[in-house]
Amino acid sequence: MKKIIAAFFEAFLTKNLSSHQKRIMKAIIINIGDEILIGQIVNTNAAWMAGELNVYGIDVLSMITVSDEKEAIVNAVESAICDADLVLMTGGLGPTKDDITKKTLCDLFGDELEFHQESFDNIARILLQFGREPDDRYRIQAMMPKNAQILINKMGTAPGMWFEKEGKIVVSMPGVPKEMMYLMSKKVLPILQSRNIIQEIVHITFICYGKGETDLSEMLESFELSLPPYIKLAYLPNTGNGYIRLRLSGRGNDRKELEDELKLKSEELKLQLGNLIFGMNEESLENALSKILLEKNLSLSIAESCTGGKIAHKITSIAGCSKYFMGSVVAYSNELKIDLLGVNPETIQKFGAVSEETVIEMAIGAKKRFKTDYVISTSGIAGPDGGTEAKPVGTIWIAIAHPDGVLSKKLKLGNLRERNIEMTSNIAINTLRLLLLNELKEDLKPTY
Question: Domains (ranges, CATH) in the chain?
């Protein structure tokens, strides 16, 4: 009986894995250009290409930038062919003498150049738009490798070239971003897809706030163990704003099957993490808060000191915020805290501007002035200086005035000013989000 069960299990596992076992294509991106190496321009091509390849289930092993020299190009291509199935190159395809990529690749693949009429016609079409005729320079540009597949570039005068050797693919494209993007989108990726050599990949991305990567990993340990080998969970933390993206990725041949399975796993993930998840893909905390305020028909105002208007900026970055956001005060000085928000001078004298007592009175004063359902207030020492032994840099208080009282929280952050402002703003917005969802932390208690 045990042997029968074992055999059945092995057959079941093999059957269920077979549709997900298609070989993953590996790619290397090579960008050619001295202007990149000397920092004259930023290499945005590689990032865009990597993103597109990921959508198509192609893994990028590395991104390489080389100079406009034959030896450097040859070495990079030969090395890339050894490690990858697909090599994507940009740059060095113009009509000037320093653009040597075409001739270098022709020599590397044992090919020879010949006049390519379709490329010349495309060049003539583009020049005609500017009232020009193609001269001998453009006839030279229309000389293409005889045995390569030529990819006509409707966005520019330099065609792309597709070489193949012993199952390896090398594609050369112009370095101009819009031309490269056209060839990738209209030529390269469709050709790869038509050959049925690209494995399907499906992503579902959630965004979390309130726990660190290690804590989330511990919470999801059993969930990760339950994932089949063709579904992976990636943790993508952003130390600047405290967001952690959780990306579920599935690979296989049947896209519909992957989408259905990822949806089921996504529901399991949401059940485990609850309101630690605030959105998907590129959503922000302020976007999540906006939805709740609109749904509950609530109003909000803000009183900021150390965050200097950052919270108000985040709130007003969301379209439609005028339906719930009434306004804000940046009361940086003690005088404005007293005059505009009604903070008692004795409170500041006794406890200081950076104190629970002051930030609570700021929230109460703003609530009375703006007549809103909720108020967020902040006061602290953002840094990099201004701290004391009792209140070091990074000591920040936030408060939220609500219909039943005020909640307050002390933050102990670092000495990086911009990060402190960003983190304080996000923590304050998230605290209000959790309050509205009845998901308060234990240390947030009403103070009156």
Answer: 18-194 (3.40.980.10), 200-280 (3.30.70.2860), 285-436 (3.90.950.20)
pLDDT digits (tens, 9 = 90+) for 61-104: 999 999 999 999 999 999 999 999 999 999 988 766 667 889 99
pLDDT in tens, 294-335: 999 999 999 999 999 999 999 999 999 999 999 999 999 999
Is the pTM higher than 0.85? The answer reads no
Give the 3-state secondary structure of the chain.
CHHHHHHHHHHHHHHHHHCCCCCCCEEEEEEECHHHHCCCCCCHHHHHHHHHHHHCCCEEEEEEEECCCHHHHHHHHHHHHHHCCEEEEECCCCCCCCCCHHHHHHHHCCCCEEECHHHHHHHHHHHHCCCCCCCHHHHHHCEEECCCEEECCCCCCCCEEEEEECCEEEEEECCCHHHHHHHHHHHHHHHHHHCCCCCEEEEEEEEECCCCHHHHHHHCHHHHHCCCCCEEEEEEECCCCCCEEEEEEEEECCHHHHHHHHHHHHHHHHHHHHHHEEEECCCCHHHHHHHHHHHHCCCEEEEECCCCCHHHHHHHCCCCHHHCEEEEEECCCHHHHHHHHCCCHHHHHHHCCCCHHHHHHHHHHHHHHHCCCEEEEEEECCCCCCCCCCCCCCEEEEEEEECCEEEEEEEECCCCHHHHHHHHHHHHHHHHHHHHCCCCCCCCCECC
